[in-house]
Design goal:
GO molecular function, one term: deaminated base DNA N-glycosylase activity
Organism: Mycolicibacterium peregrinum (Mycobacterium peregrinum)
Number of strands: 9
Keywords: 4Fe-4S, DNA damage, DNA repair, Hydrolase, Iron, Iron-sulfur, Metal-binding
Distance between the termini: 14 Å
Largest sheet: 7 strands, mixed
CATH superfamily: Uracil-DNA glycosylase-like domain
InterPro entries: UDG_Type-4/5, Ura-DNA_glyco_family4, Uracil-DNA_glycosylase-like, Uracil-DNA_glycosylase-like_sf
Shape: globular
CATH topology: Uracil-DNA Glycosylase, subunit E
Strand content: 5-15%
CATH class: Alpha Beta
Protein name: Type-4 uracil-DNA glycosylase
Helix content: 25-40%
Strand order of the largest sheet: 1-3-2-6-8-7-9
Order of helices and strands: HEEHHEEEHEHHEEHHE
CATH architecture: 3-Layer(aba) Sandwich
Mean pLDDT: 90
Number of domains: 1
C-alpha cells in the first residue's frame, strides 16, 4: 500500500517537513513531477487553505497557487478582504499529476486517484499539527474528501461550519468546504461571476469564524461530519 508516512519526520517545524517532502516517494506521482510542492505561508496562520494538487506552473515554481487558479484565488481573497500573507496554503497531493496532449508538449491536469490522496494524507496531517489553524478551508472535492471521507459532497455542504474529530493532535479545527478556484475558471462565462461571488462568500464565512472560535471557544452548532475511520497517521 502506498503511503507517505515513512517519509514524514516527527516534527512540528514546517521547514523540516518541507525538506523531507522533497524526497517523498510515497506514491508513484513523484516519478513524473518536476518536484514536490509543499505548503507555504504564515507558520502560525489562523486559517489554512487546502487545494487539490499543484498545477503545471506550481510544479515548475515549487510553490502552491501561483498559476491561473492561484491568481483567481488572490482576486477572491482581495474581494473578501483577506490578506494572503496571513494564511497558510497547501494541497492535498504534493506532486503534479498530468497527462500530455498528442504532441507531448502540453501537460494537462489529471485528478488524483483516491489511493494517491490517501497516500499523501500524512503530509496534510503533519502540516495541520505544525500550523495548528483555527479554521481549514477545503477548496474543492479532492481536498474535502482527503479529510472528510470519500462520501463527502461539497455541493451539499459548501459554506457550512463543519467539524471532524482526530485531524490534529491538540484540538479539532473548524472546516469550511467550497469550490476550487479552477472551477470558476472552467465554468461557463454566463455563470462565472456567480461562481466567483460564491467563493468569496465562503471565504468570508471561514475568516469570520476565526473570530467566533477565538471569542467563544466554539464555531457554533454547524454540521458534524464524523470521520469514517481514524485519520491520524
Amino acid at each position: 500500500m502506498h503511503s507517505a508516512a515513512p517519509f514524514v519526520p516527527e516534527t512540528h517545524e514546517l521547514s523540516e517537513l518541507a525538506r523531507a517532502a522533497r524526497h517523498c516517494e510515497g506514491c508513484p506521482l513523484y516519478r513524473e513531477a518536476t518536484q514536490t510542492v509543499f505548503g507555504s505561508g504564515r507558520p502560525s496562520a489562523r486559517v489554512m487553505l487546502i487545494g487539490e494538487q499543484p498545477g503545471d506552473q506550481e510544479d515548475r515554481a515549487g510553490e502552491p497557487f501561483v498559476g491561473p487558479a492561484g491568481r483567481l484565488l488572490d482576486k477572491a481573497l482581495t474581494a473578501a478582504e483577506i490578506d494572503r500573507d496571513e494564511l497558510y496554503l497547501t494541497n492535498a497531493v504534493k506532486h503534479f499529476k498530468f497527462t500530455t496532449n498528442e504532441r507531448g508538449k502540453r501537460r494537462i491536469h489529471k485528478t488524483p486517484s483516491r489511493t494517491e490522496v490517501e497516500a499523501c494524507r500524512p503530509w496534510i496531517l503533519a502540516e495541520l499539527d505544525a500550523v495548528s489553524p483555527e479554521v481549514v478551508v477545503l477548496l474543492g472535492a479532492t481536498a474535502a474528501k482527503s479529510l472528510l471521507g470519500n462520501d463527502f459532497r461539497v455541493s451539499r455542504h459548501r459554506g457550512e461550519i463543519l467539524h471532524a474529530a482526530g485531524l490534529m493532535s491538540d484540538r479539532d479545527p473548524v472546516l469550511v468546504a467550497t469550490i476550487h478556484p479552477s472551477a470558476v475558471l472552467r465554468g461557463r462565462s454566463q455563470t462565472r461571476d456567480e461562481a466567483f461571488d460564491g467563493l468569496v462568500a465562503d471565504l468570508r464565512i471561514a475568516y469570520a469564524t476565526t473570530r467566533t472560535v477565538r471569542s467563544e471557544g466554539s464555531a457554533g452548532s454547524g454540521t458534524f461530519i464524523p470521520a469514517a475511520k481514524p485519520v491520524r497517521r
